[in-house]
Design brief:
- The complex is a heterodimer of chains A (115) and B (113).
- Chain A starts with a strand and ends with a strand.
- Chain A contains no helices and eleven strands.
- With 115 residues, chain A is mostly beta strands.
- Chain B has 113 residues and is mostly beta strands.
- Helix content of chain B is 0%, strand content 52%.
- Chain B contains no helices and twelve strands.
- In chain B, the strands form three sheets. In chain B, strands 2, 5, 6, 10, 11 and 12 form a six-stranded mixed sheet that branches.
- In chain B, a hairpin with a 6-residue loop joins strand 10 and strand 11 (101-103).
């Protein structure tokens, strides 16, 4: 069973540009969550999508947006990049409705560097 | 809102020694609890989880954790550290809907040969 796939793995952008990151969840997983990971800040929750609807949103500015497609694949977009957006962006999928707790399965992440 | 506190951002142990990573949570209702491990340049991998039932949970790679409701703790232990255990460890909680997760800031484990 394929895991969570994130593309691209590494990318470099300059301030003011925008970036789109992609996440393909495990087959059958309908929930996709996004996290930003930076040194010292740990994992900061960005948003969570289920059945193409954003159900939860973290405390990030409107420059951060996302969407989910009918096949559960998700994208996140960051516009007008700032130096502080440099981070590892992690996507996680989960099987909603499974007995017990939902478990997040993470991708390897997309490492964004903003120059 | 729930929160997770991991005491000690960096922990060093000698190879073969006991590993103890601390995690405390705040929640009025016992949540679901998780430990994840992250190796360099990789995503997070589930080590173990507590949902209901037995409070001592065994995970992969010889790790285990005990849920103590009275102490609101979920500390991670391993009797004997191995060099391959060097990684970043994250404690996480979710509410009982499982729709939202809260992560601690992580503990970096160094194993000294």
């Amino acid at each position: 069973k394929a895991g969570v796939t994130q593309t691209p793995r590494y990318l470099i952008k300059t301030r003011g540009q925008q970036v789109t990151l992609s996440c393909s969840p495990i087959s059958g997983h309908r929930s996709v969550s996004w996290y930003q990971q930076t040194p010292g800040q740990g994992l900061q929750f960005l948003f969570e999508y289920f059945s193409e609807t954003q159900r939860n949103k973290g405390n990030f500015p409107g420059r951060f947006s996302g969407r989910q497609f009918s096949n559960s694949r998700s994208e996140m977009n960051v516009s007008t990049l700032e130096l502080g957006d440099s981070a590892l962006y992690l996507c996680a999928s989960s099987l909603i409705g499974a007995p017990g707790a939902n478990v997040l399965t993470f991708g390897a992440g997309s490492r964004l560097t903003v120059l | 809102a729930q929160s997770v506190t991991q005491l000690g951002s960096h922990v060093s142990v000698s190879e073969g020694a006991l590993v103890l990573l601390r995690c405390n949570y705040s929640s009025s209702v016992p949540p679901y609890l998780f430990w994840y491990v992250q190796y360099p340049n990789q995503g997070l991998q589930l080590l173990l989880k507590y949902t209901t039932g037995a409070t001592l949970v065994k995970g992969i790679n010889g790790f285990e954790a005990e849920f103590k409701k009275s102490e609101t703790s979920f500390h991670l232990t391993k009797p004997s550290a191995h060099m391959s255990d060097a990684a970043e460890y994250f404690c996480a909680v979710s509410d009982r809907t499982g729709n939202q997760f809260y992560f601690g800031t992580g503990t970096s484990l160094t194993v000294i040969p």
